[in-house]
Specification:
Protein name: Sigma 54-interacting transcriptional regulator
Oligomer: single chain
Organism: Intestinibacter bartlettii
CATH superfamily of one domain: P-loop containing nucleotide triphosphate hydrolases
Keywords: ATP-binding, Coiled coil, DNA-binding, Nucleotide-binding, Transcription, Transcription regulation
CATH architecture of one domain: 3-Layer(aba) Sandwich
Pfam family, one: AAA_lid_14
Shape: elongated
Low-confidence stretches: 530-536, 594-599
Strand order of the largest sheet: 2-1-5-4-3
Bound molecules: adenosine-5'-triphosphate
Radius of gyration: 42 Å
InterPro entries: AAA+_ATPase (IPR003593), AAA_lid_NorR (IPR058031), GAF-like_dom_sf (IPR029016), Homeodomain-like_sf (IPR009057), P-loop_NTPase (IPR027417), PAS (IPR000014), PAS-like_dom_sf (IPR035965), Sigma_54_int (IPR002078)
């Protein structure tokens, strides 16, 4: 392959300069590159363009030493003594000047006199001539520089285009008015646009979910969600707008877009390494081992699962593990707490709605959790708290496997595995009419009942050690273990809040501990004062109604401890008003005082 000399890229410009020199001084010009190949010439040199110029020792000297040279009489000149052509030389005089850029020589401009007139003209105007040639050489090096810069820019541009086309995100850059400047392949693909669609088009017209008027109201960066529907292309996602500001001046926008399903996929990929599995569920007792075995079998099917168990027994943990053991693991696991969302919002949360379906509906509509969980698993926690109206809707989804969105024109097919969970007794609820029987049977295809902590006390020491490790690390306290008395207390306690309560007790105790070993002193008063549950179920003594009330209040407080509206949810689950709950807390404050959950 021929390696191109830099000057060759601008040889037309160089030939023009050679002819300009000729027209000014009327002496023929030769311009050579760094290999001494003639790349431009006038008069009799025109036919010799492309030839190697031999013997020109003056050119070499000028090139190597980067100096202008004048040779008055080649036959007498010291410089020409080594020239192989000296005997046949027809030259009367010669002037040459190097073409230099950033201290590197790229070639030489030479003027050769073939008669006395030309030689005299050179001699008499030498300074001016040298100066003129130097200016011409500078002109060539400036052209060369511009050419190199353009080339560099083209390489950068190409690299950038390749980079953009290989990005997961769709990207478009526009001017201050929104006219499209550049976009990547993904952008055209995402919005189903061809080059004609983009020619001199305004992005705010094409993607009308972005309102230009709003874009002036943010400083640098803004994000939003979108729904785009055109030419059978229906995409939903998130967009970010970045303002391009150079030296304080606003120059346009770069907008990137990511499809929601892509974002979810990426999220799942990132989190894959931290996924919880059945192996992370602590416990050696027969009950928990058998439950884990059943859960593993259930993970291989797509049938609906109903997990039951008291609050804090690990229902969500099991649901996540089942998803992570299933072949849906690379798709989303979406959780909905049916008790934490008011009934009027739950419907749109679950099923979503189309744009404009009601006053106040968000632009672009809203994706429901069922759609977000596409090809994955939806975990419907606290299903027993769902209203009868929504139970009917859910039943339809389970039966038809189709979603009927609020304001939607057509139904959407869904491929979602359902895992429901509750701590309520659904059978009793079915009997008293607060839970639909048909829905109960649809959900209860694979039942998994989680044992309470009381039923597997043998696992308590294992759980305590695991939690001491976890929380001492988290709280940066060196706690080495638990003493026998404290351990016995925890083994015998009734654990109405199950593992979540045990976690809270250990966390509290590590915080309070003055020594490296947890003792009774660091335990919360609540688990020491109330010991009515020490005995196994069925053998307990009759308790006073007050004791029962305190216990249920404590259970409710533990359960909703982590929610923002904890008291409100606790009161609701107890079937009393918030004010009543506060009154009772005041009344029993000595009995519940010191309880970590009340803070
Ligand atoms: N076997 C276990 N090993 C370790 N941690 C556990 C185990 N079971 C539950 N946990 C922990 O206990 C806490 C409560 O678990 P989870 O939220 O799954 O319970 P839940 O039954 O869904 O509760 P609720 O009914 O109140 O929603 C979580 O922090 C969970 O990580």
């Amino acid at each position: 392959m021929k390696i191109m000399n830099e000057l060759e890229n601008i040889k037309d410009d160089i030939q023009n300069i050679a002819e300009a020199i000729l027209s000014v001084i009327n002496i023929d010009v030769t311009i050579v590159d760094d290999k001494f190949i003639r790349i431009a010439g006038t008069g009799k040199y025109i036919d010799k363009i492309g030839d190697k110029v031999d013997g020109y020792s003056a050119f070499r000297k000028s090139f190597v030493e980067q100096v202008g040279i004048f040779i008055e009489d080649p036959k007498e000149s010291d410089i020409c003594k080594s020239c192989t052509h000296i005997h046949g030389c027809k030259e009367f005089a010669e002037v040459c000047c190097p073409i230099v850029l950033d201290n590197k020589s790229y070639g030489v401009i030479g003027l050769i006199a073939f008669d006395t007139d030309q030689s005299n003209m050179m001699k008499n105007n030498l300074d001016g001539l040298m100066n003129f040639l130097k200016k011409m050489a500078d002109l060539i090096s400036n052209k060369l520089k511009a050419q190199m810069n353009t080339e560099e820019l083209e390489v950068e541009k190409k690299k950038l285009e390749i980079l953009l086309d290989n990005m997961d995100k769709a990207i478009v850059s526009v001017d201050i008015n929104g006219y499209i400047d550049k976009c990547n392949y993904k952008f055209k693909e995402l919005f189903n646009l061809n080059d004609n669609d983009l020619l001199k088009k305004n992005v705010f017209d094409i993607l009308n979910f972005i309102k230009k008027t709003n874009e002036n109201n943010f400083s640098k960066y803004k994000m939003g969600s979108f729904s785009y529907n055109k030419r059978n292309r229906n995409v939903k996602g998130i967009y970010n707008i970045n303002k391009i500001i150079i030296k304080g001046k606003f120059k346009g926008y770069v907008i990137d877009f990511i499809e929601k399903k892509e974002a979810i996929k990426t999220y799942n990929k990132i989190n894959k390494d931290y996924k919880i599995t059945l192996d992370n569920i602590i416990g050696n007792s027969d009950l928990i081992v058998q439950t884990k075995r059943n859960a593993l079998i259930a993970s291989r099917s797509t049938s609906t699962i109903l997990i039951t168990g008291e609050s804090g027994t690990g229902k969500e943990l099991f649901a996540r593990s089942i998803h992570n053991h299933s072949d849906r693991v690379d798709n989303p696991f979406v959780t909905v707490n049916c008790a934490a969302i008011p009934d009027n919002l739950l419907e749109s949360e679950l099923f979503g709605y189309e744009e404009g379906s009601f006053t106040g509906a968000k632009k672009g509509g809203k994706l429901g959790k069922f759609e977000l969980a596409d090809k994955g698993t939806i975990f419907l926690d606290e299903i027993g708290d769902m209203s009868l109206h929504l139970q009917a809707k859910l039943l339809r989804v389970l039966q038809e496997r189709e979603l009927d969105k609020i304001g939607g024109k057509s139904n959407i097919f869904i491929d979602v595995r359902i895992i429901a969970a509750t701590n309520k007794n659904l059978e009793t609820m079915v009997k008293n009419g607060s839970f639909r029987e048909d829905l109960y049977y649809r959900l209860n295809v694979i039942p998994i009942k989680l044992p309470s902590l009381r039923e597997r006390r043998g696992d308590i020491p294992l759980l305590i050690n695991y939690m001491i490790d976890e929380y001492s690390h988290k709280l940066e306290k060196e706690i080495l273990g638990i003493d026998e008395n404290a351990k016995q207390l925890l083994i015998n306690y009734s654990w109405p809040g199950n593992i979540r309560e045990l976690q809270n007790v250990i966390e509290y105790s590590i915080n309070m501990s003055q020594s490296k070993v947890l003792t009774l002193d660091s335990m919360p008063k609540s688990i020491m004062n109330i010991d009515y549950d020490k005995k196994e179920e069925g053998t307990e003594e009759i308790r006073t109604l007050e004791e029962l009330e305190i216990r249920e209040i404590k259970k409710a407080l533990i359960k909703y401890k982590d929610y923002k509206k904890d008291k409100e949810l606790a009161a609701k689950s107890l079937g009393i008003s918030r004010a009543t709950l506060y009154r009772k807390l005041e009344k029993y404050k000595d009995k519940i005082n010191g309880d970590t959950y009340l803070k």
